Amino acid sequence: MKKTIILIALVFSVGVKAQIFTAKSGETSISFFSEAPLENIEAVNKSASVVFKTTTNDIQMSISVQNFKFKNALMEEHFNENYMETTKFPKCVFKGKINETVDYTKDGEQKVTITGKMELHGVTKDVTIDGTVSKTGNDLKLYSKFKVKVSDYNIKVPSMYVKNIAEVVDVMFNVVLEPYQKK
Fold first, then answer.
1. The pTM is what?
2. Which residues pair with residue 46 across a beta bridge?
3. What 3-state DSSP class applies to 174?
C-alpha cells in the first residue's frame, strides 16, 4: 500500500512539474475544409510534430504537407502537385506563443489567443488565432479553428478551378499533448 501511494505521488508530481509537452501519438489532427460552389474539399493530417513549453507558453508545430489525406487520390495528387508544390515546400511550420497566463497545475479549460509566424508554401506571415487550452490529468489539449486566405501564401488557383476551391479555407487543429519523456 505504501509503495502504491509513493508511485502515485511520483507520477502526479511528474505531470505537474512537466514543462515541455509533445504531441501524444495518434491524437493529433490538423484539417482544412474548402467550401466552393462546385465541390467541398476536406483533408486531414494526423502526423504533426508539436512541442509546447508551459513556462514560456511557446509552441512550435511542424506539419508535413504531403501527409494530408483526402477522400480520393486525385484530389490529393492535385493538392500536392498543382497547388501546394510539396516537393518544393514540404513543411508548414508555426512558431508562436499563447498570450494569456494559464495555470497548468489545475484541470480545466481556458480561451486563449496564440500569436506567431506561420510558414506555408514558402511564405511566412504573422498570425494571431483564437484557441482553447485545457488540462485533464497530465495531458494538455490545444484546439483552434481559423481561416487562411490561400492567396496570402502565394497558392495559385487557375481560373478554371475557382468554383472548385475556396479563396479562404477553414483550418482546424486539435492536439493532445503529454509530458515529454526522454527516450
1. 0.84
2. none
3. strand
In the chain, % helix, strand, coil (3-state, to 5) comes to 20, 50, 30
Half-sphere exposure in the Cβ direction for 101 (13 Å, CA): 0
CB atoms within 10 A of CB 76: 15
Burial of 151 (0-12, 13-18, 19+ CB in 10 A): exposed
Angstrom distance (rounded) from CA 50 to CA 155:
24
Gap between the Cα atoms of 4 and 92, Å rounded: 44
| Gap between the Cα atoms of 72 and 88, Å rounded | 23
Name residues whose C-beta falls within 8 Å of residue 14's C-beta, 6 or more positions apart in sequence. 138, 179
pLDDT tens-place string over residues 99-133: 999 999 999 999 999 999 999 999 999 999 999 99
Rounded to an integer, what distance in angstroms lies between the CA atom of residue 45 and that of residue 68?
Answer: 4
Q: In the beta sheet, which residues pair with residue 28?
A: 175
By the 8 A CB rule, do 40 and 31 touch? no
Residue 165: which of 32, 59, 47 has the closest Cα?
Answer: 32
Start-to-end C-alpha separation, the chain:
29
**Amino acid in the structure at residue 135:** K
> Quick check: 63 and 92 in contact, CB under 8 A?
yes
How buried is 36 (Cβ within 10 angstroms: 0-12 exposed, 13-18 middle, 19+ buried)? Answer: middle
